[in-house]
Specification:
Helix content is 52%, strand content 0%. It is mostly helical.
């Protein structure tokens, strides 16, 4: 089975559609954060996805995490 890379462009669309209503971009730039590794970012994306009452697929969660990592966090994988 071939692994597919996360799609940050799709992640951006999902983030802006489902997460952006409550989150604003500056939220990810605050100094106090629970995110200090890429794995922690993925956990937080999955945790908060429950708040929008939408069941994201594992690939969609990866896409959102990849978008946030490239646009804000810049964490090593």
């Amino acid at each position: 089975m071939q692994a597919f890379a996360a799609d940050p462009q799709q992640g951006k669309v999902l983030y802006e559609t489902y997460c952006g209503t409550c989150h604003y971009e500056k939220l990810h730039e605050r100094k106090a954060t629970l995110v200090d590794t890429f794995a922690a970012l993925k956990v937080q994306v999955a945790k908060w996805s429950l708040q929008v009452n939408r069941s994201f697929t594992p690939a969609e969660l990866d896409d959102i995490a990849e978008y946030l990592n490239q646009s804000h966090y810049k964490l090593a994988k």
